[in-house]
Amino acid sequence: MEHHADFAVAVTRRLFVETDYDRPDGGKVEGQVIALGWWVDRPGAPPAESEPAGTLYLVIDERLTRPVWVAQGRITATRLED
User: Fold this and answer.
1) Full DSSP string of the chain
2) What is the distance between the alpha carbons of residues 56 and 21, in angstroms, rounded to a whole number?
3) pTM of the predicted model as reported, rounded to 2 decimal places
4) Upper half-sphere CA count for residue 4 (Cβ side, 13 Å)
5) Sequence-ordered list of residues with C-beta below 8 angstroms from that of 32, at least 6 positions apart, any chain
6) Which CATH number goes with the domain that contains 15?
7) Could you report the per-residue pLDDT of 21-39, keeping only the tens digit for each?
8) Residue 66 lies in a domain
9) Is residue 23 domain-resident?
10) pLDDT tens digits for 2-26?
């Protein structure tokens, strides 16, 4: 399932993740996170009345042509770099 975020914020630290999310050509998505996002359960409701339903990571994988949203539950490893 392709995820999308209803709201997102930029990640300002160098955060790298490994996931169990399959690339179309094989292997698993991994790379730097450029944004954290979330979606809400109540489509069409004003943001103040909607509760976040899940967290997503926007990951740049050098083997893919565009960044992909990966659900938090699919993250298998993380590391911060200075």
Assistant:
1) -----SEEEEEEEEEEEEEEEEPTTSSEEEEEEEEEEEEESSTTS-GGG--EEEEEEEEE-TTSSS-EEEEGGGEEEEEEE-
2) 12
3) 0.81
4) 2
5) 14, 15, 16, 59, 60
6) 2.30.30
7) 999 999 999 999 999 998 7
8) yes
9) yes
10) 667 878 999 999 999 999 999 999 9
Q: Which domain holds residue 70?
A: 7-81
Q: Are 59 and 67 in contact (CB under 8 A)?
A: yes
Does residue 34 belong to any structural domain of this protein? yes
Give me the number of domains the chain comprises: 1
Query: How far is residue 9 from each of residues 36, 39, 59, 75, measured CA to CA in Å?
Result: 5, 12, 13, 18
Query: Which residues lie below 8 Å from residue 34, measured CB to CB, with a gap of 6+?
Result: 10, 11, 58, 59, 60, 67
1 in any annotated domain: no
What does the alpha-carbon distance between residue 17 and residue 78 come to, in Å, rounded to a whole number?
A: 4
